[in-house]
């Protein structure tokens, strides 16, 4: 059974959740909201660290979603971990834990991404399920299948 489209949709959803988790870094909305204006390294209640992490999460999310459409040759060379269930699963678990913080708008995407990462790690050890074409071949993006 071919699960390629399902895996692609899951990877796109994970990319969207990464972007949403990155955007959530900028907005201190949650159970523990504090607004301190320009004191003690805060800028409107946001640490500088949260801004940097948010930018990285948005970039990683856009790159993860973009890999489902086109795979640039340098990515296949330098980010080869994205082309196996194990590598992508470990990456998703890592990003999921980076997103987790003390606000519910970060719990939700972080937890979903982490669960998908654990599922991908498990799928690495199930030989009957093959990775989609874009995870097997560095040249295959969405729409690159042979008909």
From TrEMBL:
Coiled-coil stretches: none
Keyword Membrane included in the entry's annotation: yes
Source species, domain of life: Eukaryota
Annotated GO CC locations: Golgi membrane
Swiss-Prot/TrEMBL keywords: Membrane, Transmembrane, Transmembrane helix
Membrane-spanning intervals of the chain: 12-31, 51-69, 81-101, 107-126
Topology in membrane: Multi-pass membrane protein
Locations listed in the record: Membrane
Major subcellular location class: membrane
One BP annotation, GO: vesicle-mediated transport
InterPro entries documented for this protein: Golgi_TVP15
Pfam family name, one: COPI_assoc
Protein name: Copi associated protein
Organism: Botryosphaeria dothidea
């Amino acid at each position: 059974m071919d699960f390629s489209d399902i895996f692609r949709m899951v990877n796109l959803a994970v990319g969207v959740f990464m972007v949403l988790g990155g955007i959530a870094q900028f907005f201190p909305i949650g159970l523990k909201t504090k607004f301190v204006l320009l004191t003690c390294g805060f800028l409107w209640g946001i640490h500088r660290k949260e801004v940097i992490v948010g930018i990285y999460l948005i970039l990683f999310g856009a790159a993860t979603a973009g890999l489902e459409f086109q795979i640039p040759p340098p990515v296949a060379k330098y980010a080869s971990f994205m082309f196996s269930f194990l590598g992508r699963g470990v990456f998703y678990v890592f990003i999921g834990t980076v997103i987790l913080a003390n606000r519910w708008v970060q719990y939700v995407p972080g937890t979903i991404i982490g669960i998908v990462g654990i599922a991908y790690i498990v799928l690495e050890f199930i030989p009957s399920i093959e990775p989609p074409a874009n995870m097997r071949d560095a040249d295959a993006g969405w729409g690159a299948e042979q008909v």
